[in-house]
Amino acid sequence: MTDQKPTGQKTTAGKSNGRQAAQQQPAAKTTGEKRLPPTVDIDALIDDPKTRVIVCCGSGGVGKTTTAAALGVRAAERGRRTMVLTIDPARRLAQSLGLRELGNQPRAVHADGFDPKGELSAMMLDMRRTFDDMVQAHAGPDRAEQILSNPFYKTISTSFSGTQEYMAMEKLGQLAATGKWDLIVVDTPPSRSALDFLDAPQRLSTVLDGRIIRLLSAPARAGGLGIRKIVGAGFGLFAKVISAIIGGQLLQDASTFVQAFDSMFGGFRERASQTYTLLRSPGTAFLVVAAPEPDALREASYFVERLETDQMPVAGLVVNRTHPVLAALPANKALSAADELDRASRPPLASAMLRLHADRVAVANREKRLLARFTKAHPSVAVVGVSALPADVHDLDGLREIALRLAGK
Amino acid sequence: MVTSPGPQTANWPDELARVRLHVVTGKGGTGKTTTAAALALCLATGGRRVLLVEVEGRQGIAQVFDRAPLPYVEEKIAAAPRGGEVWALAVDAEAALLEYLAMFYNLGFAGRTLRRMGAIEFATTLAPGLRDVLFTGKIKECVGRTDDKGRHRYDAVVVDAPPTGRIVKFLDVTKAMVDLAKVGPIRGQSEGVARLLHSGDTAVHLVTLLEEMPVRETLDAVDELNTADLRPGAVLVNRTYEPRLPAEQIASAASGRLDAAEIGSELGSVGLDVSATVVADLIAETVEHAARGDAALRARTQLDEANRPTLTLPELTDGVDVAGLYELAEALGEQGVR
Q1: CATH number for the domain including B137?
Q2: What is each CA distance from A343 to A329, A340, B92, B248, in whole angstroms?
Q3: In chain A, which residue's Cα lies nearest the Cα of B130?
Q4: CA distance B254 to chain A (A)
Q5: pLDDT tens digits for range B259-305
Q6: More confident residue, B321 or B12
Q7: Does B6 map to a domain?
Q8: d(CA B336, nearest CA chain A) in Å
Q9: C-alpha A203, offset from chain centre
């Protein structure tokens, strides 16, 4: 890992600085709020030719995929050659991008009424095929065959908890290396924690580095010097137990796999570290996605802290599905008028409208409070709220609408 | 979206009242943890002892009960109305494996070193399903545990389980383990776990929102559970709200057929003089509200395809705090959960 200069997070809080694509919040409808966080200027971010990769990350169910797809559509329409790498899109969203099946190759998005100035391609990650391709590229043909047919490889390439994240990074690295796109928007895998995207590759790497597998499959020989001394007799017993639990055959397969994999491991790790460097480069922007809910914002907060620790550039926080107040009318005034209308036995519509407005004020206040907590902890992180659409998005028009809201229009 | 009150047993039939292991799943973001916590409180009401278990390592239970992160021990986390108790446990795969090793193999002191080396994490991630075997094994142990008088330690166990996409894989660990563990205590144990999970003692409840995608996932999960011979329990519709608009006006309001002049004069009739802009903005809010209500009605109809007892949890305007959990538990109780 190359050490990189801090990207400016430590400069004056709230001031815009290049990579954060931030600007001061324009005077909004919401008066009375004093210290608003800076706003993410999405158009500046996607128009900037220096922005090469945008990573959308956040916990599950917050709308990462939709955000990534909407950014892709907007960037393409604004003239950039854009690629959207999605991991696990909902079926109808995938269809709206013309992705009807898993394909490990990018496809150009064509649709009626979609005639972007730039280009838009999209693909869904097929992690097994990405892994296969990588093995084939790095091991000799004989070795590759040996690895691909190993039962343990099947397990690790499809079921290991970090493989999807690793392969998403690998694919990102490949796509970036082709130079075919000026902007790649990446959606991250649905994991229990957004941090997995950064940590999982390390876990996979630990497994593949094979030290532990060798120890477990041949504890008598391989432990040799250091570790056996520390763990002593306990390790032999442990290895026996592990082998009894997961089966000696699996360990044997694992061991064979690791030996075959050994020759390409250097290349493998190098790739991973290159991709990691790409993530830390100034051309990469992380957009942390959340919903106005305590859990999602807490995850977002962890993730921002982690990105800052790792000196990765945080472009901002996208808060999806907010419910901002539209009508400038105090809730108490609306409620007392509603009471009056009811007392006068007027038709129920106007009173209902006033009450739902008061509800909306309450929801908006709650969302503002939740967001204020995040902002207090991370005053320099730019924020953009995307107000909720009444229905799920699954066509280009819907994505365009989301994109408009992202861009603050 | 009023659920007709009807006979209470229709919402929570005897087959659910008999269940001792309640598995709560749902699409990410639907409020699984909150719902599981409310269900545990509701089941404990009236003097029962219920254990709430989480398996994803998110410390979600501690968060909804506003507590410090839970260690890997069972502890009382809340008092339920009329003498009940909710206990909580955050199962941790590594701790469970060490406990298991200590139990069957007397592997004591080396455990910590192995853990530091990452060997335990390695073992639990190496075999897909081993984690889940450990989790479900621990859950079974909690469900089956008895005191010295032979009475169950917990009257019911509620699990905040993995999301719908992974639930069948999580519960159906035996299939994965048969290939991996041909003999040994884990084999025997996982067979016992499978018996429990496929029995009438277990129900898998599905948390959803009245939105298109969560409903779709719920219906898919019901099919998957049925196919795997697991038992779907109730559908728990989270964050429902009463539309403010009269039912017959929702559709027309959703399509924007609202007369600004008329509304302006209605407001004026009670002395609320607002600008045309405010009226237009109120109309925009109303159209959104109606459109959402309309989509929710459609989702509710579609949810009937699941053919499961369906209960609702109201949206809490102020968000979920501990008091809110009691409110939700009460709502479940009023709908027949027992």
Answers
A1: 3.40.50.300
A2: 21, 5, 58, 21
A3: A246
A4: 10
A5: 999 999 999 999 999 999 999 999 999 999 999 999 999 999 999 99
A6: B12
A7: no
A8: 29
A9: 18
